[in-house]
Amino acid sequence: MKVTGIPVSRGMALAPARIIPPWPVFSDKRREFHIPKARQIASVQNAVSRLGAFYTERANGFYAIGDKDRGDIILTHNAILHDPPLQEEIIRQIQDNYALESAVLRAFRKYAATLSEIGNEYFGQRIADLEDVAARLICTILGREFPEIHLGDLPVILIAADIPPSVMTGLHPRKVAGVVLTAGGQTSHSAIIAASLGVPVITGCQGVQSQVTDGEQVFLDGHAGELHWGLEAEQIEEFTRLVQRNDRHMQLLDRLAGKPTQTADPMPVRLCANGQDVSSCEEINRFGCDGIGLFRTEFLFLGRQALPSEEEQFFLYKSIVTAMQGKPVVFRTLDMGGDKILPCFPSVEEANPFMGYRAIRMYLDREDVFTPQIRAILRASAFGKVRVMFPMISNLEEFLSAKSRILCIQRELDEQGIAYDPQIPIGTMIEVPAAAVNADILARHADFLSIGTNDLTQYTLAVDRLNTVVSYLYNHFDPAVVRLIQYTLQSAARHQKECGICGEMAADPLAVPLLLGLGLRSFSVSPGALLRTRRLISLCSIDKCSQLSEEVLQSVSAKEVIEKIQRWMPASYAEWVV
Ligand code: PEP
Ligand code: MG
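That is the input. Now the predicted structure with phosphoenolpyruvate docked in place:
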């Protein structure tokens, strides 16, 4: 039996399935007027003591196997749980007629907001722990199972409707053989983080959790976007052979770690990584690259009720810049709304949220968001090479207005005697079709451009990037998208400005020769795709790629574009595509 989803990250894996139960969503608005308050308070106290016993036992388990770090984390959670002001706040919320679930959630959020205001690194990091403890406490009160992801030593293929990015980032790549998300499209943020683990990932396989048995051996083909289960013995043999061939490829790729990126000519090509946390820098540096081409700052805002302070942001940005050891880091300012739902920005009712009040449009109105973030980025620029870039820019005025706000903040820092890089390059993403059509205008004013093909495809083809019903239309090989990329690259070259691609297309093996032919010399891909992209580039020569792109530009459909690339591919290249 098999299901075909959307391939997100290539590779193959044969491993036991691990079905992840749906993540609980709690309401903070439920009221309760009938159950006596004393009984509700007793329920909370009872749950606190049961959860406390669970934490103690768990921490002791970790200490017994010498895992002090994890033991300490669990004890911190236990300390949060028993914190008197927090417990008092829960009781206050109950007295205020909130139902238990909402009372706990509101109390934790209030507590988190206070910690966030204190604004130092230690407290900033505790906020994620608070959310974890709150969810566990509510589950304990309601008698619901907390959907944990416990991973043993044997790698498993995770199958889930979705895994919150905050949980996904905590997963160890050695313990995850693959990820199958039943919701979401190719470029949902959970999918992007899963891809950064360097394992095969597919999305959009509706209902598969109920068909696969937890623990059964399944085969995940991240190239074809397929998940196979209910395997017969011969199938297991065949899939084992395929996985072994794939592993040989992976070993070959390991040898490219730390090597320069160049075409067969050889022509040097910039290869950067897309990053979202400090821990990914270690892997990025091991693979070697020319810097971080896209740092999605929204990951710091995910799953939080309160905005991170300037200090917390500064600490993160400085850590990234320092970890990248002199290589440039492009910080993209907060890209909220649309597919990036951030609890600290209450959603506004809009008929078309993807085209609504989001990203730079909201950012420019929110001094409380803009100023701390830009100050933090500028301050981090005193510690290494930093660039700043705006998302969702649709016209020149928007870009100039954002840029002038940066200049004002620079004056402010000057007056305060705070160090930053006064030459900091300021660039724009090209992800709205209007920005691509006006790329020549933007290229005159921006220091660099970066094409976000995920959104550029979505907006050009009017296809919601997360909607699996219309995902058959979502194709970055559509001639409309290819032409916009070509025009953007040409415009940037005319103004001698660097133009990269940081959307998922840059890591698509079928797209690499086409993009080189169109003139792209700066790729930014997820860390897991760095080595393969380096290998693919090394198999391409610029002349041949240019001929290919000329032919492709005559195509009338995405199908024809793909066929032309497939016909162009020498066997040595095709081996890496399937
Ligand atoms: C893009 O749109 O291509 C992009 C890189 O940004 P994001 O995926 O974060 O929207
Ligand atoms: Mg985008």
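Residues 391, 431, 452, 454-455 surround magnesium ion (ligand 2) (CB under 6 Å).
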